[in-house]
Amino acid sequence: MPDPLSSLEAYQTFIYTLSERFPSIRRSTLVYVPGGDLFGRVEGILFFGGDVVLCVQEYLNLELGVIEGYSYEVSRSLVSADDSDFPAAAEYCQASYTRKEKLYWYDSFPHPNDPALAATDPHHKHIPPEIKHHRIPAPDLSFTRPNLPFLIQEIEQLPGS
Predict the structure, then answer these.
(1) Considering only Cβ atoms within 10 Å of each terminal Cβ, which end of the chain, N or C, has fewer?
(2) How remote is the C-alpha of 13 from its chain's centroid?
(3) pLDDT tens for residues 125-156?
């Protein structure tokens, strides 16, 4: 497979074939939303066993071959992913959605005043307790290569997923 960030077609192929490479993915709603010829975003949900859900939002600049920003949230849904009334990603992935247990999340918002995050700034992970304010470095995330394989492999290590 060519470098997924090398072209629009390569990244679309990458996201639309994730479940072929990772059988732990039970279902995907990931879509590429163009914002121009070489800019766009990926958004949606990857569903795993044990009602584990990965919300994905990536902002891509394919002219430069980079992910310009991202947000990845891993949660355990309190609604079965198989339910016909499971909410759309736009609803479920909101921070305010209450029918999920947030396990952790990653974002690329910089925190230059937090010396504990300097080694991987702006890449960091929010973890319990006090998940909103408890951040640790995220050395496995990048702007120059896809993050989804790492995130999927991390989820595969969760008990019950």
Answers:
(1) N
(2) 17
(3) 999 999 999 999 999 999 999 999 999 999 99
Answer whether 54's CB lies under 8 Å from 155's CB. yes
The pTM score is: 0.95
Place of tokens 């958004």: 43
Q: Which two tokens stand for residue 37?
A: 């010829």
Q: Quick one: which of 133, 79, 83, 81 has its CA closest to 107? A: 133
How does 123-149 read in b/e, with b if 16+ C-beta sit within 10 Å? bbbbeeeeeeeebebbeebbbeebbbe
pLDDT digits (tens, 9 = 90+) for 76-88: 999 998 888 899 9
Omega of the bond leading into 129 within 30 degrees of 0 (cis): yes
Q: What is the Cα–Cα distance from 82 to 66, expressed in whole angstroms? A: 34
Contact 29, 44 (CB under 8 A): yes
Q: What is the dihedral of CA 64, 66, 69, 70, to 10 degrees?
A: 150
How far, in Å, CA of 87 to CA of 99, rounded?
10
